[in-house]
Amino acid sequence: MRRAPSWPRHAIMIAVSVLMLIPFYWVLKTSLTGENIYAYPPRIVPVDPHLYNYVDVWYLIPFPRYLLNSLIVTAMAICGNLLFNTAAGYALTKQFPGRRWIVLLLLSCMLIPFQATIIPAYLITAQLGVLNTHLGIALPLLSTIICIFIFKASFESVPRSLIDAARVDGLGEWRIVVRILLPLSKSAVATNVILTFIWSWNAFMWPLIVTRSPEMQTLPLGLARFLSVLEDTTGALYAFVVLVLVPGLAIFLMAQKEFIRGLTSGATKG
Question: Which architecture characterizes domain 51-263 according to CATH?
């Protein structure tokens, strides 16, 4: 039986991709021209592009400081997630009394919105004495339940014989995780890093609550301050958005295959 040509599917996917990329192109174009976004008819090709808006973003507010704070907080969140989620995911692969109830408890906690836990989270952060610090901003994101289950699914897909052989050779639990499971779970690690980066990089409400000084503000908070500095904010605002979006898009594009594989790591065994 003759196979149907594949070009119609490719054409449809290209058309859908172009439609999805239009907003990103429009943001980039407006950041380079500063033109009125309500102008009609809209201009498809940018006219007289320049980088003045990016210069304004960099110098009118302490953008490097906001960028550094976001990088520090995001790095702490990623390191905490890799440590705690790996340990929790490996623990949930074991058989022990109450394991089923712990899994059900974690799943039920995923139904609780973060806004409902802000007050106890703030009180705990204040008791720890880490308000207005990088650790205080990163604290709620040091572990995420969905990433715990991603590691759990990835670890369970590793053949049990490898773990038993490593244990026979005298490896302890942590060495089994570091030397056996993590090298075979690169997709889960990439998924963890991407999700944690996006959640921490774009966090607004929690940093707004725990920060007290402008020197500790992150990029989302810096955007709110930037809007109060400039009156004509169209081009500069879009330039700010581009600078914030680029790191996340770059990380996702570099690890998108591992990210997709990590989300489906528990679908097959072996």
Answer: Orthogonal Bundle (1.10)
